[in-house]
Amino acid sequence: MSWKSILWFVVGIVGVMSVSVLLLWQFGNNQAKPVLDIAADARNVKGEGDIVIVEFSDFQCPACAGVQEPLKKILDKYEKKVKIVYRHFPLTSIHPYAMVSAQAAEAAGKQGKFWDMHDLLYKRQADWSKAEPRQLFIEYAKEIGLDEVKFVMDLESDEVKRIVNKDLVDATKNRLNATPSFFVNGVATSFAQ
Predict the structure, then answer these.
(1) With contact defined as beta carbons under 8 Å apart, do 102 and 115 qualify?
(2) Confidence category of residue 157, pLDDT binned at 50, 70, 90
(3) pTM of the prediction?
């Protein structure tokens, strides 16, 4: 081999190594970072802790209903350490009443009863998810002590629809495709973890 061939070989190896290190640094540093601050502007929060669990969920999703009791146990056991943030991710392609149920929870939230409606929607999911549920939601609103007229107005209000749609946009930005989806301190995780 000539001196020039050796020089070009070394330059090529150094170049490949430099690109490899740059790519590893670029992609390696971004793995644990959240795509965006998914707990920002949190409205629906339970708990007081520094560990933030964000749940993207759909009230018509059976799996979402199934994780509510384990989440409640986590919060009961670690209330001072854990904070749970609820975000809407209505999968309307498979759950026709997911959007209106999210709106019902937010309409209840306008009167300080988000979590009461949240719990009732999951508890009675089998009752309301079979047919147009608005009338049942009005009955639930009365049951938890809401002003019925205000609830009905808020249920269809642009403001409530914007709130739900913002969560939906954030779920899409985070490339979510299933419910429930969880983030712990901004990092995507499965519930089993």
Answers:
(1) no
(2) very high
(3) 0.79
What are the distances in angstroms from CA 73 to CA 40, 69, 123?
24, 6, 16
Assign domain 45-189 one CATH number from 3.40.30.10, 3.40.50.12780, 3.10.20.70, 3.90.650.10. 3.40.30.10
Question: Over the chain, what HEC string results?
Answer: CCHHHHHHHHHHHHHHHHHHHHHHHHHHHHCCCCCCCCCCCCCCEEECCCEEEEEEECCCCHHHHHHHHHHHHHHHHCCCCEEEEEEECCCCCCCCCHHHHHHHHHHHHCCCCHHHHHHHHHHCHHHHCCCCCHHHHHHHHHHCCCCHHHHHHHHCCHHHHHHHHHHHHHHHHCCCCCCCEEEECCEEECCCC
pLDDT of residue 10: 38
The vertex-148 CA angle with 143 and 149, nearest 5°, equals 175
Cα distance between residue 175 and residue 50, in whole Å: 25
Token pair, residue 175, equals 């490339």
